[in-house]
Amino acid sequence: MLTTIKEISAHVGKEVKVGGWLYNKRSSGKIQFLQLRDGTGFIQGILVKKQVSPEVWEQANHLTQESSLYVWGVVREDERAPGGYEMDITNIEVIQIAEEYPIAKKEHGVDFLMDHRHLWIRSPRQQAILRIRAEIIRAIQGFLDENGFTLVDPPVLTPSSCEGTTNLFHTKYFDEDAYLTQSGQLYMEAAAMALNKVYSFGPTFRAEKSKTRRHLIEFWMIEPEMAFVDHEESLKIQEQLVAHTVQAVLANCKQELKTLDRDLSALENIKAPFPRITYDEAVELLHKEGFADFTWGDDFGAPHETKIAESFDRPVFITHYPTEVKSFYMKPDPNRPEVVLCADMIAPEGYGEIIGGSQRIDDPVLLEQRYEQHALPREAYEWYMDLRKYGTVPHSGFGLGLERTVAWICGLDHVRETIPFPRMLYRLYP
RNA sequence: UCCUCAGUAGCUCAAUGGUAGAGCACCCGGCUGUUAACCGGUAGGUUGCAGGUUCGAGUCCUGCCUGAGGAGCCA
Question: How far apart are CA A346 and CA A326, in angstroms?
Fold first, then answer.
């Protein structure tokens, strides 16, 4: 029966058996310090020459970094240990002496680490990030599940673009053309008409040649869609969802945040309600802040978003964008048809847009007009029009980008560390 | 696609146009409380590729390849 390092504190004074890997070793002539990890935590094992058999001592002498082994030892509290506990080793059983491990203890370049991503994820920092990612997913799903949402899975293979704007990954579907999904939203609208409040959680694919710290080719989105919910109510749900998620990470991932050296005060601020400014106000703000030549009607770029976010200590909603820069399905403001009922949520500290959402067009006549204005292939969108013909209702939805959210909460400078095996421009390996 | 920067030992990096080096890792030896342990030693090279200039090129020039950061686009 194995004991995990995570629960080692419950075994003080007793002998336990741990299965793990050696991530470092320091030795003197008559004492060896084995740094062990088992995926649940880290602990140091102490091996004293005159207290173990010559065979055990000799085996330990030949252990290399990342060798796998079973260790028997007596758990002891020790102030000198970073985790508070140590093991006095009584016996070891080597599973495998690892070959020379490529990832050394000193620093490495990004290219090298990305080529060894399958090994890189063993490091404490990467483990912490992946744990927080899992906690974020758990918190988001927990919040939605408890608030009346039903999980619905949209297809990954689709016959055409959902929005028609970005480049899609093309593949064959027997004799037909098919594309990897870039958003499940339109399908989620259909699901909302069946199940009321729904959300999807899955991968999306963008064949964009984007090469920045905020972009991945394959990334994960959470896309809630809500019948009978207007723009204003949707914003409330969004800010509660994000605040809940941040607080869950703060409560459940203290050790991981410490490993990442994350500034906790920046996260503790994140409570609803979030500030809101309209697109008009954002343009004004930019004019005052050194972007004098920004003209009304343009979409914001990354520098603009960062400048706007700097004015707030929590995520900010930018609402009511010009109709022309947004997608065809967004509902115009009844009082001002030149803008739409939409909002982007911009994360603080320069992490950019983490949510994009809107109220959707529910009027079949207006949607027809949009099809024509955007020259959408009618037959591919026939089913979407059906949603407005058979009992249309006001509805809203949004998409939350998981990796940007993880990058922000973890305080990372690049999204490539937020996903186990990032798919990036020109990088498909490992 | 565009702009900027970079490619030298397994890794991280040095090297005025003049004999290619250090630290770490590996291997060998030493050390009874180490915290990226430390000390000594061995070994480790087609300087991204192809041309060019030069008595001489890691260094200068041209082209290409690869990577990084950013832009556009987006979450």
Answer: 16
CATH of the domain at A217: 3.30.930.10
Chain A span 315-374 residues with beta carbon within 7 Å of strand B: 325, 352-356
pLDDT in tens, A286-339: 998 888 888 899 899 888 998 999 889 899 999 999 999 999 999 999 999 999
The answer to whether A184 CB sits below 7 Å from nucleic acid chain B is no
Asked if residues A299 and A325 have their Cβ atoms less than 8 Å apart, the reply is yes
Q: Is the CB of A295 under 7 A from strand B?
A: no
Q: Helical H runs in A253-331?
A: 254-259, 264-268, 279-288, 302-309
Number of domains chain A contains: 2
Q: Is the CB of A44 under 7 A from strand B?
A: yes
Together in a domain, A61 and A170: no
A97 touches strand B (CB under 7 A): no
